[in-house]
């Protein structure tokens, strides 16, 4: 019996030693020196794609390493995220993602990844507002008038979003439960489809990013009612916030961020954070971000980690409050 006990203890010790050795060998592996791949959760042409390509171009010039952009849209970002989560953590593959990263695990039965366990924060790229805008035919010029209209004519209003579980859909549902707004949610597969439906008059309203709505607001084809940010957006200071319109709980920013597979060496994360931070500080990059409806953020990896944790907390509260499910 004693010999058997010693054998079990020895076996456990050997197993632990083997796991430690494997982990040490993995950590000691040199970082990749070839091209860097940015995997994007959306199709080409969207804000995430444009931001990734802009940063990739500047990084290529700055570091001498080519940055390739690979679009892997689908399942609300789950496909791209799963791909990066399973990639070799050698510093060659990164994920450019948005709010879907924290939202999906709450609304999908199987998102296919754990946002805290499977990926490591590198740097927050940008943040910007969702905006509630309406077709010019809608007889409401303010958010209060829009809410009153929905109550006078129950079931007459609906809003398009860029997809179930997107930042815009959470902002829209948060507004509904906060204000008592009677408005049906119609999710589309992306910003282009949602915008087209509202411009064509099929749907009277939309909650989307200023990236998508901005040009149509400037042309007068859409009328903005409010943004879901704590303060007015510097690029469109005439648009009031949902909070100052009477609903202080309606604050939910759209963010863009860069993450790496779990196990990526700390030195690689630190260098990428520093290099991207330098890119975000470039005047022309700042200007381009603003035209896309974002402000560049940057900052430390720890700051991004804290933001993600706060976002998960807020998302959990909103999803529970509105009972949102993707499947």
Concise description?
Pfam families: TctC. The protein has 2 domains: 31-127 and 254-322, Bordetella uptake gene, domain 1 (D-Maltodextrin-Binding Protein, domain 2, 3-Layer(aba) Sandwich), CATH 3.40.190; 130-227, D-Maltodextrin-Binding Protein, domain 2 (3-Layer(aba) Sandwich). It is built from 11 helices and 11 strands.
Describe the fold and architecture.
The chain is an alpha/beta fold. The protein folds into 2 domains: 31-127 and 254-322, Bordetella uptake gene, domain 1 (D-Maltodextrin-Binding Protein, domain 2), CATH 3.40.190.150; 130-227, 3-Layer(aba) Sandwich (D-Maltodextrin-Binding Protein, domain 2). It is 45% helix and 19% strand. It is built from 11 helices and 11 strands. It has helices spanning 2-28, 47-63, 78-85, 100-107, 143-152, 167-179, 191-199, 210-218, 266-280, 283-291, 301-322; strands at residues 36-40, 67-71, 93-98, 119-128, 130-134, 158-161, 184-187, 205-209, 223-227, 254-261, 295-298. The strands form 2 sheets. A 6-stranded mixed sheet has the order 2-1-3-10-4-11, sandwiched between helices. Strands 7-6-8-5-9 form a 5-stranded mixed sheet, with helices on both faces. β6, α6 and β7 (184-187) form a beta-alpha-beta unit. α2 (47-63) crosses α9 (266-280), α4 (100-107) packs parallel to α11 and α6 packs across α11 (301-322). The longest helix is centred in the first third of the chain and has 27 residues, at 2-28. The chain is globular and about 60 Å long.
Fill in the keyword field for this structure.
327 residues, alpha/beta, D-Maltodextrin-Binding Protein, domain 2, 2 domains, 6-stranded mixed β-sheet, 5-stranded mixed β-sheet, 11 strands, 45% helix, disordered N terminus, BUG, Bug_dom1, Tripartite tricarboxylate transporter substrate binding protein, signal
